[in-house]
Amino acid sequence: MKRFIRFAVAVLVAAACSLGVFAQDKVVKAVLETGRTDNRTMQHADHLANVIGGRIVGSAALTEAEAWVKEQFESWGLEVMVQEAGEINVGFNRGPWFGRMLSEDGMPLHFGTPSYTAGTHGRQMGHVLIEPHSRRELERMKGLLKGAWVLLDAESNGMAIDWTPKGDSLRAVAIARNEEIDRKNMERNRWNWEHRDSVAKEMLPYEKATALFYREMVDAGVLGFIRSAKVPMQVMYDRAGCYKLTMETLPTACDILLDEAQFAVVKKKVERKETFFLEFDIRNHFYRGPVKYHNVIGIMRGSKYPKEYVLAGGHLDSYDCGTGAVDDGNGVSVTMEAARLLAASGAKPKRTLMFCVWTGEEFGLLGSKFFVESGVIPLDKISNYFNRDGGPTMATGVSVPEAMYDDFVKVCKPLEGYSDVPFVVEKRRGPSGPRPRNAGGSDHAYFAMNGVPTISFRETDPRGWNFDYREIWHTESDMYGKLIPEYMEHSAVVTAVAMYGLGNLDHLLSRDGLYR
Fold first, then answer.
1. Does residue 186 sit within a domain?
2. Which residues does 494 contact at the CB level (< 8 Å), separation at least 6?
3. Are residues 226 and 354 in the same domain?
4. CATH number, domain at 167?
5. Burial code of 121-139, b = ≥16 C-beta within 10 A, e = fewer?
6. CA distances from 95 to 54, 243, 256, 291 (A)
7. Residue 283 lies in a domain
8. Which of 238, 387, 429, 481 fits a disulfide with 242 by CB distance 3.0 to 4.6 angstroms?
9. How far is Cα 33 from Cα 336, in angstroms, rounded to an integer?
10. Do 83 and 121 fall within a single domain?
């Protein structure tokens, strides 16, 4: 009798295991099929880029995007965690911007302004000056500063001019050095005059600093400052001052980054003392805060190991000179579609899956840092975090430590034959590096610093679309047209299959050999 009971139990266990394998296969097959026939990755991307647009921290657009992501997750039956990651004193919304040069050879101007910098009060027209480099020059031209656009020597790096006390102190050092240079140049001028028949002494170059006499020029009533910018233009934000702003201390002078070719034309006309004007209409708007920003996380609870986790994510915030389609609407759209594919397939993973849409990445990985440090889940219970924050390229493989290799081969096996582009799992070559000590790069950083596996997919361009990430990175070119639908749709399927597979292992991924 006992033998019969043991036999019956064994049969039931085997049957249950078979049913479990069948259910898992059924879910994966559904993901693969839906990924081919009803893939909505680009619908998510279209809404983020073309309906909502650029999503800078503190903007109404980011707030709207957060609400939309939450709504989508809920509509797919996911539990949703909205996590307040921070706030900023003053909000910023961007409207249209226009500019032109008024002269016989006038032209429309190609330019941008960093977020959290001043707009115009309607159309503002003014003459153009080249910035002073010494107090002597400042005194000579101070009567012309009111109502002027001022060309600066320093080229743009995409960030706003630093108007904070730290920026003032750096400028003060440069001003003091230039005073000494100016004194020596006056002596050289005098010597050259007195020794006109001799070889002239060359003038010493002034030390450059961005907007050397910024305070004095703002107080004198300049309309704004103009810097030369390479194309496609990087147009970012007021990193130094945006968190220090209040409604009582808003900037008044515009901070304009002008196409380098047009800047050269304008500067040459000033040097030739031609009569012309520049006109700008810049609709940068501030509103009273505080404005909060949030992580939005879709959760699929585990059936057997609910307190163990597999994570994937991308960041929702973006710069707003473009529409944030690639950086990182691409990562958010792929993460969201992975969640939808699994939800639509009826997936019930053993481990909890978390689809993480982070905030504040561009302002310093604020959302993911907050999540890691908040302790909302134990970091030693995270099997892996997949981060997507790069080009809209195709997930075609993964490179893992030896201790993870067999698990990833098993998990990714359903991807064999899914596409004519092979999906390859490889063992990492060479010794592992040390655990990172400093944050940087993207939202995987704080996870990695705390020892969490952050294995991400190898992303390639197998069809030869010649995508150049530097072209869109924080530039005006970060638009929907730069996305590659086939690659993103494929990557959503890969993400869903890998997360589900890791979620159904009977163990967490080994961390042996992850770091040196």
1. yes
2. 395, 412, 415, 423, 457
3. no
4. 3.50.30
5. eeebebebbebbbbeebbe
6. 11, 21, 15, 18
7. no
8. 238
9. 17
10. no
Question: Residues 342, 380, 427, CA angle at the centre, nearest 5°?
Answer: 70
On whether both 325 and 213 belong to a single domain, the answer is: no
H/E segment holding residue 12: helix 2-37
Among residues 251, 275, 299, which one ends one of the domains? 275
pLDDT digits (tens, 9 = 90+) for 65-79: 999 999 999 999 999
Structure token pair of residue 374: 């908040």
**Is there a domain that residue 439 lies in?**
yes
**Rounded Cα gap, residues 113 and 444, in angstroms:** 30
Residue 485 structural domain: 31-90+291-503
The size of the chain, in residues, is 516
Q: Above 70 in pLDDT, residue 402? A: yes
At 83, list the tokens. 């996590």
For residue 6, is pLDDT > 90?
Answer: no
pLDDT of residue 7: 45
**Does the pTM of the predicted model rise above 0.70?**
yes
Q: Are 335 and 422 in the same domain?
A: yes
Domain-ending residue, one of 213, 241, 275: 275
Q: Which residues have C-beta within 8 Å of that of residue 313, sequence separation ≥ 6?
A: 331, 335, 354, 355, 356, 357, 358, 368, 385, 386, 387, 388, 443
Instruction: Give the pLDDT of residue 207.
Output: 83
Domain total of the chain: 2
The number of beta carbons lying within 10 Å of the beta carbon of residue 348 is: 17
